[in-house]
Give the backbone structure.
Amino acid sequence: MQIGKMMMVLGAALLVAGALFYFGGRFHFLGHLPGDLHSSKNGVDFYFPIVSCALISLIGTILLNLFFRR
């Protein structure tokens, strides 16, 4: 891979990550989907958003396959 192309891909990835951090509070449904695990006992909270992670992984896989398919 050429260095210029790699830098453009990394720049785009940083742009997307920055947008997610900036607009992250507006996605209230993400992290509260059915199937996400949340437990609170004796003042200790355990939270694992397994369904949200699976959804983000699926969407990312579809987008990457659309853009980088040969």
About this structure: The chain has a mean pLDDT of 83. Residues 31 and 52 are 6 Å apart (CA to CA). Residues 1-26 form one domain. The longest strand covers residues 37-41.
